[in-house]
């Protein structure tokens, strides 16, 4: 099996009664172990009568595909030699998926149900599920069926969303998993560890689970608790790595959305579900995904001690390649917000998913630097901003703020126009708007980068002012 490079992410889910505009949100930072890993973003066309087997380049998993596949947005690796890793998208039925949030199961549960190396892995999940589902619940059901048949190669968390429901599924071992419907008035921040807590096996409306999981736990004496069935306690880990790599990210996300609640960033019992103190806007989700312990002593770009600045793994990293927010709006077209590169410095670009294309600058992602590529343009911007962070952070924040304001205005204008159109005309119109949105952001970004490079040239240490009297 080839080396898995996608294994460190942070996810956020927000229910429609917890959000400001009644939207359901799922979101995630896709992180890698390397800083440069080009990503594409485009629309895959619907297929009516395919006769095809899927074969994974990563582990040779082979699956017969259904004949009909829905159109969907996709964010694959530019180099598919180690797998497609389509990661996230929304299909034409307005169902969204983000896969995966890598997690770890403990050695006890893995002893009795080990992972299956040739089973379903992150590289395949979106490809095998998203084009074939018409609801968030159906996403859990299809992925569960695939795991039952082929096993799971990894421990993962997977997000599904539609306009009515959000489901989060955690796959712990080769064949065992649970899923929870996120309550409408709650949010979740997940960070590379099993987080789902108590499961009610009498409530199939709000929970789903793998066949035989209760007997598996009972027969192998795996439950450490006397009076509860807590998936995190049974299947999860509680290690030093969790307390420095994982739980602090959950702590920070909850600190942003519940600022009056005091918690220990290294606590192993941070709640999985939380009700926010105020309604959550898309900008709040962007703020968390772009964060690096801002305004705390743990910020690696802040003024804390050298030890504190390296104490915890941040949410936004140099190896974040693709940050996305899927917004299922109650009375409008679904939006996929996309920030390529480091979301601390890159803006979130709103694209309408009920469209036939995104933009050529997003489907073009060569192996080497080319500013015609959106991926490379934002990676270049990230490098420029961080090179003189103290001098460039405020201009960069102003640039992002201006684009956030422009996005809200643009979305409102598009919403009004779409109301006048039939379904076919709406798809064509939204496709055109995606191109115009990309063009606006591309031009604004190149101007911003030009301004920063010009300013940075004056900061060179290879500067000497001649005495005019000489």
Automatic annotation (TrEMBL):
Q: Per its record, what are the GO molecular function terms?
A: cysteine-type exopeptidase activity; dipeptidase activity
Recorded superkingdom: Bacteria
Record keywords, A-Z: Dipeptidase, Hydrolase, Protease
Catalyzed reactions: an L-aminoacyl-L-amino acid + H2O = 2 an L-alpha-amino acid
Enzyme class name = hydrolase
Record InterPro entries: C69_dipept_A-like (IPR047804), Peptidase_C69 (IPR005322)
Per the UniProt entry, what are the Gene Ontology biological process annotations, in alphabetical order? proteolysis
Its Enzyme Commission number(s) read 3.4.-.-
In the record, the note on similarity to other proteins reads: Belongs to the peptidase C69 family.
Q: What is this protein called?
A: Dipeptidase
Species per Swiss-Prot/TrEMBL record: Companilactobacillus suantsaicola
